[in-house]
Amino acid sequence: MIATGIEPTSGIQITGIPRQPIEGVRLENIRLEFQGGGTRAQAANLPPELGAGYPEPGRLGVMPAYGLFARHVRDRELGNVNLSFEKMDLRPPLACLDVDDLEIDNFKALLMRGMLAAKFVAVKNAVIQNSPVLDGVTSQ
Predict the structure, then answer these.
(1) What is residue 11's predicted lDDT score, i.e. its pLDDT?
(2) Is-contact 123 139, C-beta < 8 A?
(3) Using CA atoms, how far apart are residues 78 and 97, in angstroms rounded to an integer?
């Protein structure tokens, strides 16, 4: 999949609910270019839990990652993913909260100088390979 000009409120969002995680998602061979423009304040956003409501991007606001946001997910795989932006973005390309059994292979992303490539909170059992941009990223 290839897409360009993606708005800051869009991108990939995989969101379950606390006791009902999304399970068994594999995303592969994806190249996305976002509009960018995200701020440090937006990088600290925590989208609301919607419970039974449909996670329409407009209801969640600007994501804390410019590319892919995942919360309450089990058994997730990313392979050959390349994320970039058109104009400066101060959010990481990847944010994972409450993710168990995460496997990443060949993840590439454009970063602003001094920015981390990912924010991991309560991420367990992560295997990352062939993804130098993620070197040094640990779960909080």
Answers:
(1) 83
(2) yes
(3) 15
